[in-house]
Every structure is written in C-alpha cells, then in structure tokens.
Amino acid sequence: METGTYRYEAPDIIGSQLPVVVYFHGYGSSAANTIEVDRNLVNAALERGYVFLALNGMTRNFEGAKNGWSVRDGQHPLRNEADFARAAVQDLAGELSLDLSRVLLAGYSMGGSAVLDTACHSPQGFAGFVVLNGAMWTPLPKTCVEPVQLFQIHAFSDTVMPLEGLSYGPVSTGDVFAGLKLVREVAVDSHTPDGFAVSAEMSCRFWQDSAVRFCLYDGDHTWPADWMQKALDWFEQRSGKP
Questions:
Q1: Directed axis angle between helix 81-93 and helix 110-121, to 10°?
Q2: Peptide bond into 170 cis (omega under 30)
Q3: Cα 196 to Cα 10, 205, 213, 215, distances in angstroms
Q4: CA–CA gap between residue 95 and residue 35 (Å, rounded)
Q5: Can you tell me the distance from the alpha carbon of 198 to that of 139, in angstroms, rounded to the nearest whole number?
Q6: Is 109 exposed, middle or buried (0-12, 13-18, 19+ CB in 10 A)?
C-alpha cells in the first residue's frame, strides 16, 4: 500500500467471513520473517480459521536502525501505525471476505508498544488487543480515549523492556504497570482485580471477567511458545465466538 507493506496467510479452507489476527512484529524483525519463521504464531491463527496479517515496520534514518515502529516516544513519527493497521485490514478485505467485527491486534516487544498506543489513543476497528513484552514509551499519556479489551503478558525477568522501564539514549520505555493503569482507568470500574489465575506457567489477574487481563511468566524477553493460543482463547472467550 502507499503507507507500507504487509504479508498475510489465510486458512486452507475458507468458508464464511474470516476473523483476523493483525500482528506488529518485534524491533528488527519483518512481516516476511513473521510469516516464514514465526510459524508457531501463524499456525495458531490458521488452525482456528483466522487470517494472519503481518504488518511490516519502517526503519528510521539513523545509524544502527532496524525495522521498528513509530511508537509515542517523543520523536517525530514516521507514520500513524494505527491508521496503517486499519488500512491494511481494509486492503485485505478487498481480497478476502473478512469478519471486521473480529479483528484482534497483537504485538511483541516494540510491536506490543504499538498495540498499546493504538489501544489507548485510536482503538477503532479492533475488537481486542494482545501485548507480549511491550510497554508504552515516555512521556506516558494522561489518559486513554475509551474502554478496550486488553490481554497483556510480560516476562518477570525481562531486561529489554523491564517492568520498571528502561532508557535507550534519548528515549525510554515506561513503567509497564503505569501503562496498564491508564487502560484500566477507562475500561473497568474497579482498580482491584476481580479474580486471579495462577498456574505453573503464568500468574494472572483480571478485571471485569477478563475484559482486562494481565499475566506474568517466569522468563526473559523471549516468548512462551503457546502465547498466541492463549491470546486466541481469551479473545474467543470475550467475543463468545470460536
């Protein structure tokens, strides 16, 4: 498209309108790498009848830059990533019959930051948001625009995007819990979690029947192999549609 590129893969059997996973890759990756290498993510979506739409990041013009996203980090943005994601869905809808009421926006690391920015500032067109090891960047916004459904997963021992935030030269990731608080304040009625779920894999807390869900796992910046399956379990529970 004029604003960027994407790759997609659809299920082998296409019946009625297809739900969609839209994915922001991590810093330094690409849409092609996602489709060709990160098959556990793609296959998790395909096996449930979703189209997997992998967005492609943009490289900033400075030494050592890698494929990333225009997150709200105080720098001049290269593009509006939320608009780009919506435009990619609409573009793909010209090729395939999509269920535009079931579009899940997911992202990892810096891609997760782009998901959080979209959820907070411009969530229209997406039914749910899933973030793995991502965080808002500073300066954090004062508030988010409207309630959203968010599932955020983070590694307890993450040193790339640690829970407390980290400076990268002139820019810094924000406190993960501070960003989650901004989403919660407009999405749920209470600051106190409505429930907890603790397993050998993750320790989770949730608000309003998992409309907002936050989980920690014992790991670093790498991801749990089944995180996309867990994301789709949550999304389908929230939508009531398999």
A1: 90
A2: no
A3: 35, 4, 9, 10
A4: 18
A5: 33
A6: buried
Closest CA to 82 of 50, 131, 125: 125
Q: Are 31 and 56 in contact (CB under 8 A)?
A: yes
Whether 44 and 232 have beta carbons less than 8 Å apart is answered as yes
54-58, 119-123, 187-191: which range is least confident on average?
A: 187-191
**Look-up of token digits 């979209």:** 118
Question: pLDDT by residue (tens digit) across 153-169?
Answer: 999 999 999 999 999 98
Tokens at residue 5, please?
A: 């590129």
Contacts of residue 145, Cβ cutoff 8 Å, sequence gap at least 6: 120, 121, 122, 123, 186
Q: Which of 4-13, 20-29, 94-103, 190-199 has the lowest mean pLDDT?
A: 190-199
Amino acid at 21: V
Residue 60 — very low, low, confident or very high, per pLDDT cuts 50/70/90? Answer: low
d(CA 66, CA 64): 7
**φ, ψ dihedrals at 10, nearest 5°:** -110, 155
Predicted confidence band at 189 (pLDDT cuts at 50, 70, 90)?
A: confident
pLDDT in tens, 174-187: 999 999 999 999 98
